[in-house]
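Late entry, evening session. Most of the bench is empty. Finally got around to the prediction I had been postponing all week. Sequence below, unchanged from the version circulated by S.P.
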Amino acid sequence: MLPDLSYAPIRKVLAAHTPGPPPRRSTINIFVVDIQPTGRYIRPMTPREAASRSTVVDLFCGVGGLSYAFQAEGFRVVAGVDTDKTCQYAYEANVAGATFIPDDVTTISGARLGRLFGDSEHRVLIGCAPCQPFSLYTNRDEPDRRWRMLEEFGRLVRLTKPDVVSMENVPRVARHAVFGSFVKVLEENDYHVRSYIARAHHYGVPQRRSRLVLFASRHGEIELPAPTHVRFQTVRDAIGSLPPIAAGETHPEDELHQCRAVTEQNLKRLKATREGGSWKEWDDELRLACHNKKAGVSFRSVYGRMKWDEPSPVITTQCLGIGNGRFGHPEQDRAISLREAALLQTFPRTYKFIDPNAYRGAVHIARQIGNAVPVRLGCVIARSIASHLRDVAM
C-alpha cells in the first residue's frame, strides 16, 4: 500500500526537503515510510537502501572479489568484464545474477556499457586495472600494453559519465603519467576526485597490503572511512583452524586446501627456517648462489616463513612457491595452500574457484586469487560509495 502523503507529519518533512523546483532526482526517495503499531513515521534512507538503487559494472573483474563485495553491501552488480575467460566460472558462480563478459575493455563501446547500466537511478563503474606494470614486484620501467587499460577506463568514463567511479591499484601507480592523465579526464568531466592509500590490515584483512583507492563522483567528494581495526587480524586468525597437510598434498575434504610439492633440498631449507625466519639463517650449504651476491641481499623475504601472530605479507600471484616470497607456512614444512591464500585475501570459505567441468590447475587459481581485491577491502570501498549516495539524496 502506498503511504498516505496527506498525513500531516509526512507533508511537513517532505516540504522541508523539497524547496523550489524539483531536483534532477527527487529527494522524496531518501525517505522510507514505516508503519508501526504506534503510528507512522519517516526515517532516512540507509546506505544499503541507496546501494540497492544503483547498478554496478566491474572492469577487469577477474574472479569477482570486488563485485562480490559490492553485492554483499547491497549494490546491484550486473556485469564484470575481463579478458581472462577462465575467470568466468568463479565470477558467475559467486556474483549472483551478474554476467561475465570475456572481452578486452578496448572493445567495449560507450553504448554497450550504457545498455548494461540501463535506467538505474545511480550508475557506478568500478575496477582494478592490471597493476603489474606499476608493482614493486615487476621492476620494469619500459612501457607496457597494460598501462593502456587505465586510459581505456578513462575513455569509458568520458563516454558514459557514470555517477560514481572507483579504481583500486598499487600505490606506485600515482607516480606515473598515465594516472595523472586518468585524473585529468575525470576532472574535465566534472568529477570530484579523491584518492587514498588504504592499508588493508587496518580494515580487517589479515595481510599487509597497501592499495591506492580512487573515488570520483559527479555529486561531491567520497570519503574513505577511518581504519576499523586497531588489533589487526593475523595469519593465525585466518588459517590457524585449517587441518595440516604435507607438501604436495590435497586435503581429502577440501580440494582447494592443496599445496605445491617441494624438492628434498627445499625441504631441508624449510626445516632450517624458524617461524618468521628466512634464508639468512641457513648454513652456507643450503644457500643459493644468488644469496651470496650483493644483489641477493635485497630479497630478504624469499624462502621465508610467515608469522602466526602478524598479518601476512602481500599475497601475490606467485604465492604457492617458497622461492617467490615469504610464503612458507608458519610451522608446517611447505608453502601456503590455495585455501590459505584465499582466506588471507578474505574470500569466504564458500567461494567457488574450481570449475568441476574444467579444472585448470593450482598455478592458475593462485594467479586468480593473487590478482583479486581482498573482499573485506572491497566491502569498505562499497560502503564508502553507498554512504555517499545516501548523502547525495539528502
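Two things to note before I forget:
Confidence is low (pLDDT under 50) at residues 1-30, 132-143.
The longest strand covers residues 192-199.
Will write this up properly tomorrow.
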